[in-house]
Automatic annotation (TrEMBL):
Protein name as catalogued: Nucleoporin Nup120/160 beta-propeller domain-containing protein
InterPro entries: Beta-prop_Nup120_160
Domain Nucleoporin Nup120/160 beta-propeller: 57-529
Pfam families: Beta-prop_Nup120_160
Top-level taxon of the source organism: Eukaryota
Length: 1113
């Protein structure tokens, strides 16, 4: 049987804390954080039978402080009714009387108006507390809130006893929501009856039972407590109660006698003889198991002893199993069904076990036509589960198998076995340690106060721990690596102690185990976990055990690294590595002895272990409409990991076995299959350890402990319809085969591609390159394409161009449906959505989609160039790449005799401007001319000329190469330059544009076309516009102190401009032509040479008057 540990379910859900309307002492508030790191003392599950609810069961725990109760919903699919599930935490003001004076029950819809979870308990002050929670209280969006204001709806507190409680209570159980039974240590039996789960009690004392000692409890209402809390129990103390029907109950006493009581009359009807032989020193959690055998409609009660009996003659150890049958109103002992359950052989094999072996719990349930028994055995801290079948018709019993309840310890690890970064990564990324374990480890290892540790937020836990390790390392002179190892071992020990089983339950067809800090699930084992069904298993295991004993952990790490590498395994490389690994570890004789044991059956088994899994149906690409719950995701991934770890161990030791052989082609093929498995397992585990921050899947978690339910796996692989269906059916072995088949077949191309694109969408291209990029095989066209995309974001434009822009390769990828298969895995906001949607469209021929594809690639580069994570110095390179791609798109349009769409040409024009590629901008502008009106064209020229001037590239306007083109738009450029100058609010910057306009007009439509002369008057007028503008705005300079220096420089510049204008006007031949125009409002007026001269002299005089001031300054 397989066994899966689930850690972190509780910490992954939001928690609503509830306190009762009672007085909480000052000591309680001071110590309210002391339950940090406490494990559960009581735990179990309440299966729900409400098919309308997404909640399958309620997982309850009572912590070891006996004041804290957790109720955690177990769901298999994510509910769309509410935002999220939540757990409820109840904080009691005083301790529960003992671990058996609290009971939990689920009340179904058929009995009350709605399904509810009921808790009844006795605290140390003998208060009887009843709590009631609706299932809707476990939804985050529930309108039904739990608060002190509506306490009557969810709590009832009473002191219902007078003289009935004559000795200490020992056991509290519920027959149903109306009837509760309390057993007393002196053998008394009380019936607490109520009409509703929160109603007042009527108390009845069962009579005609064994005599009880009369330690009267005189006045409970005066809070007079019993003088002692002795642990001694009467031999007649009832230890378990089972409801037979509405009128009868069955009570088992400590002396192993059964009593049948009448509930209505509170009388004893019959006492049955002892159930077991031998002395019972220890008591299991449950003695009586009620099972109805459906085929025969017979109802059985199974009772198992807890202490092991040893046969003197055979030395076989076992516990006895007694079976009774309920016949109407009587109980009959079924002698032919009584049998013994043997102690698992592992207790004999474990030489380091020194303690008493006993049964801690047993679960009986119907499987097909037989009764299955799941037995929890314990010896000190070691636990194991065994499975047995009982046929009620024949009485035959059969042992099925066993599984270990707690993982093996890592205490033997040494610091040298780990790389410096691997231990912290294991803590944060593996998902094996939730935040509660980490907080407890911080409290223990760093001796940090519990109140301080409890306040550490999830987003701060990594930084806090790393800081503490660095500080401690510096203060005591111990290496950080050594401290991380010790801290990890503390975490591991806390994890292992939290795996201690408490009780067994059948939930939704699953055998679930409540652990001290987590959940265990019994399941069918995978062949990769248990090869015992194969006839050659014992031989192979014996061989592998020899290898395990001789090969160190450091050597195993080297072998694992060798097989997990992405490099292709060549025969020479295998031979060299095998020689280096085995050197000095085995002599020739030992190798010969090992190889002699390998026969055809062993080889066949090895081939099965390295063969690709076969699944029933073809892998689909449809996404599932149902979202799996957090519980289902944790269950699945932890199961997959368990299978992977077991299979990897097999394969690594099988590889060592083949290293001993002479390497030939057949062995190389097997080793390559092992390499394929282990390298893909490495990728899969890295996917498990890479998680998003939340369900929006927009960014990776970096600051807190990774959550397996938010692993990228669920966005890449885990939401396929056939995989989801198997997980929902709890078919984890089959689900693993689906995943494994996906990674070992052609679909791996789609998965690795989807994964890397997802990471790039999260701006994690460096992470994708570092962790997954090496697994991209450039010999594979699909993976080579993704390598090209990743190269783009890594700044490798050469590989990007080689792998992503070859039309022939693109056509091949389209034909293989690569784009359509990856497209569903992309996020809705993916930057690759348009590319893949376009490339997979089937209605377009190459002439239509290829130019659009290059345009989409160009847009991809543009989008990345504006990313905040990209250094500003690198952005021009990506714009240049975008220009190249957009240019290719335009060329392909021309090549296909299609006119390029205007948006592509405008895009090329704008991108060229961004990188100051003015020649390219002009080429794009020329192709746009016939497609836009003059207003639009002027706006484009405005952008072009503004960019040219701002980059100090105005000389381009007068270079011969561009002049011929520009001359055709002389007037448009003229008016555009004037608009740019006039619109520029920065006076000094506008002067530069006026001067460019002056030069433009001087050259005319130029010497450009050799058929015209420059416009001298217009050129002079452009300078005079600036003078006029300065005269109007000069007062603004005087009002701003910092602008005073600029003001003085401008005055000198104005004087220079006057001289240029006057000399230019005087150069005109005719005196009548010696004038320029000046705009005055909506009209123009003439300014002659005399007026210009007068203005010049006046300006000169003003400048001379200010000169002394200027000198003083």
């Amino acid at each position: 049987m397989g066994y899966t540990h689930i850690t972190g379910l509780s910490s992954s859900l939001p928690t609503e804390t509830i306190r009762l309307p009672l007085k909480y002492s000052s000591d309680w508030y001071q110590n309210k954080d002391t339950n940090l790191g406490q494990n559960a003392e009581v735990g179990g599950f309440l299966p729900t039978d409400n098919t309308d609810s997404a909640i399958t069961a309620i997982y309850y725990r009572v912590l070891s402080d006996f004041r804290t109760i957790y109720l955690t919903p177990i769901t298999e699919t994510h509910s769309s009714l509410f935002a999220e599930h939540r757990q409820i935490k109840v904080e009691l003001p005083r301790k529960i009387f003992n671990r058996r004076t609290i009971c939990f029950q689920y009340t179904s819809l058929a009995l009350l108006n709605e399904p509810q979870v009921a808790i009844d308990l006795l605290d140390e002050d003998y208060l009887f507390i009843s709590l009631l929670f609706r299932l809707e209280n476990f939804y985050g969006g529930s309108k039904s809130r739990i608060s002190v204001e509506n306490v009557i709806d969810w709590a009832h507190i009473s002191v219902p006893y007078s003289f009935e409680l004559r000795s200490e209570p020992y056991y509290l159980t519920a027959l149903d929501h109306e009837n509760l039974i309390i057993t007393l240590k002196d053998s008394g039996l009380l019936h607490f009856k109520r009409k509703a789960p929160l109603g007042d009690f009527e108390i009845f004392n069962f009579s005609n039972g064994p005599s009880a000692s009369r330690k009267l409890f005189n006045n409970i209402f005066l809070s007079l407590k019993l003088s002692t809390r002795g642990s001694d129990l009467s031999s007649k103390t009832t230890v378990e109660v089972l409801k037979v029907n509405d009128d009868q109950l069955l009570a088992l006493s400590l002396d192993k006698s059964l009593a049948l009581y009448n509930i209505r009359h509170h009388t004893i009807e019959k006492i049955y003889t002892y159930l077991w032989d031998g002395k019972e020193a220890l008591s299991p959690l449950r003695y009586l198991q009620d099972v109805t055998h459906s085929p025969s409609a017979r109802r059985f009660i199974l009772s198992m002893g807890s202490s092991v009996v040893c046969e003197n003659d055979t030395n076989n150890k076992y516990v006895s199993l007694t079976v009774l049958e309920i016949l109407r109103d009587s109980i009959t002992l079924c002698d032919h069904l009584n049998s013994v359950i043997p102690v698992p052989a592992v207790f004999k094999e474990k030489s380091n076990l020194d303690g008493i072996v006993y049964v801690d719990d047993v679960l009986a349930y119907l499987t097909r036509d037989v009764i299955t028994l799941k037995v929890l055995w314990r010896c000190n801290s070691f636990t194991i589960f065994s499975d047995h079948e009982l046929d009620p018709l024949t009485g035959s019993t059969k042992s099925i198998g066993s599984s270990v309840g707690i993982a093996e310890s890592l205490s033997s690890l040494k610091s040298d076995d780990w790389e410096p970064k691997s231990l912290p990564n294991l803590l944060w990324e593996s998902g094996k340690y939730d935040i509660d374990i980490i907080r407890s480890a911080i409290h223990i290892f760093f001796e940090a106060p519990t109140c301080d540790v409890a306040r550490i937020q999830a987003s701060e836990i990594i930084a806090f721990t790393e800081t503490r390790v660095s500080t401690l390392s510096a203060s005591i002179g111990v290496s950080p690596k050594s401290l991380w190892l010790k801290f990890h071992l503390v975490c591991e020990e806390l994890r292992r102690s939290g795996q201690k089983p408490l009780s067994l339950y059948l939930v939704s067809g699953m055998v679930m185990c409540a652990q001290m800090n987590g959940i265990g699930i019994h399941r069918k084992s995978h062949f990769f976990e248990d090869i015992s069904s194969n006839c050659a298993s014992s031989t192979l295991n014996a061989i592998l055990n020899v290898l395990k004993a001789r090969v160190s952990s450091s050597t195993m790490r080297q072998i694992r690294k060798f097989f997990e590498s992405p490099n292709v395994l060549l025969e020479d490389r295998i031979s060299d590595f095998a020689q280096s690994i085995l050197m000095g570890k085995f002599c020739e004789a030992e190798i010969g002895m090992v190889l002699e044991k390998i026969d055809t059956n062993v080889l066949s088994l090895i081939h099965q272990l390295s063969a690709k899994p076969i699944i029933d149906v073809e892998q689909d690409f449809e996404r599932s409409a149902d979202n799996l719950s957090t519980f289902s995701k944790l269950y699945a991934i932890n199961t997959f990991r368990s299978v992977i770890e077991s299979h990897r161990s097999f394969l690594l030791h099988v590889a060592i076995l083949f290293f001993m052989c002479e390497i030939n082609s057949e062995i190389v093929n097997v080793l390559r299959r092992i390499h394929d498995y282990l390298s893909k397992y490495n990728i899969l585990e890295r996917m498990f350890e890479t998680s998003f921050c939340d369900n929006n899947a927009l960014s990776l978690e970096k600051d807190s402990i990774r959550r397996l339910d938010l692993s990228v796996f669920w966005w890449i692989v885990g939401d396929r319809e056939n995989l989801v269906n198997r997980i929902k059916k709890h078919e984890m072995v089959e689900a693993f085969d689906v995943v494994c088949h996906s990674f070992l077949t052609e679909e791996f191309d789609i998965l690795i591609s989807s994964l890397i694109l997802r990471l790039i969408d999260c701006d994690e291209w460096d992470f994708a390159h570092e962790n997954f990029g090496m697994y991209l095989n450039v010999a594979n066209q699909q993976q080579r394409y993704i390598r090209g995309i990743l190269s783009l974001f890594m700044g490798n434009f050469e590989d990007f161009g080689t792998y992503c822009t070859d039309p022939a390769i693109m056509s091949t990828l389209r034909e293989s449906r690569f784009f359509s298969r990856v497209l569903p895995n992309l996020s809705p906001q993916s930057r690759f959505k348009s590319i893949f949607h376009l490339a997979h469209a089937e209605v377009q021929n190459a002439d239509e989609w290829l130019p659009l594809y290059f345009h989409s690639l160009s847009q991809l580069c543009v989008g990345y160039s504006s990313s905040g994570s990209l250094p500003s110095v690198a952005r021009p390179k990506f714009i240049a790449q975008a220009v190249l791609l957009e240019s290719n798109a335009v060329k392909l349009f021309h090549k296909s005799s299609n006119q390029p769409p205007l948006k592509h040409q405008k895009n090329l024009f704008e991108l060229s401007l961004k990188i100051r590629n003015f020649e390219g901008s002009l080429e794009a502008l020329e192709s746009i001319l016939t497609q836009v009106d003059r207003t639009h064209l002027k706006r484009l020229f405005f952008d072009l000329l503004s960019c040219i001037i701002s980059s100090n590239s105005q000389n381009l306007l007068f270079e011969t190469k561009l002049s011929r083109y520009l001359a055709r738009h002389y007037n448009l450029i003229d008016s555009t330059l004037l608009e740019i100058a006039n619109d520029d609010l920065v006076l000094w910057r506008s002067l530069k544009t006026y001067q460019v306009l002056y030069a433009w007009r001087i050259r005319g439509s130029v010497a450009l076309c050799n058929n015209s002369f420059g416009n001298l008057r217009g050129a002079l007028e452009s300078l005079y516009i600036f003078i006029t503008r300065f005269r109007m705005e000069k007062e603004l300079f005087k009002k701003v102190g910092k602008a005073w220096a600029d003001y003085r420089r401008f005055k000198l510049k104005i004087l220079e401009l006057y001289m240029i204008i006057i000399n230019g006007v005087r150069s005109l031949k005719n005196e009548d032509e010696r004038w320029i125009r000046r705009q005055n409002g909506q009209k123009f007026e003439i300014v002659d040479i005399n007026t210009l001269t007068s203005e010049y002299l006046g300006w000169l005089q003003e400048l001379e008057d200010e000169l002394p001031t200027s000198i003083d300054v």
